[in-house]
Automatic annotation (TrEMBL):
This is PcfB family protein. It comes from the Bacteria. InterPro entries: DUF3801.
């Protein structure tokens, strides 16, 4: 085991001594080419889904906004991701209570209306469902109103000698 470690260190020392200026220059050029390629790939990718307003505006496709209640932003985001809508949410603090604005690309209007329709349908079905807590409290009251059984047990002890 010790000999293998020594051989590896010697090989490393020998391989580094074989480096020439041409080899170092070639490695540096390959590194720069790799960095350029990665930066071009990242520049070509457009952000998808939730973004900042600057990223949304920089796509030069026009931006539209809609007011939304603060109560269920996560529920809306679920449907926006499902329908592939690029959007940005901002908080308008100038109004009391604060208002939330959803900005989205103008090209996504059909997808946005589909997302809003699905979102509003889910909210309506949620409001129509009976509350589980209310039914539970009604059942608890009904159980309380049932007359309790009178449980009397008489214990008798006999002593016999």
């Amino acid at each position: 085991m010790q000999e293998e470690v020594e051989n590896r260190t010697v090989n490393l020392a020998i391989s580094t001594t074989k480096l020439t200026a041409r080899g170092i220059l070639r490695i540096a050029l390959k590194g720069l080419a790799y960095i350029r390629r990665k930066s071009q790939e990242s520049a070509m990718k457009k952000p998808i889904g939730k973004q900042t307003i600057q990223e949304l505006i920089s796509q030069n496709q026009g931006v539209t906004n809609i007011d939304i209640a603060q109560t269920d932003l996560k529920g809306f985001e679920k449907y926006a991701r499902k329908y592939g809508v690029d959007y940005a949410i901002t908080k308008d603090k100038s109004v009391l209570p604060p208002k939330y604005l959803v900005f989205f690309k103008a090209r996504d209007t059909d997808a946005m209306t589909a997302a809003f329709n699905a979102y509003s349908a889910e909210i309506l079905t949620r409001n129509k469902r009976p509350s589980v807590l209310k039914t539970l409290h009604k059942l608890m009251d009904a159980v309380r109103d049932i007359p309790a059984k009178v449980a009397t047990r008489e214990k008798q002890r006999e002593q016999s000698r």
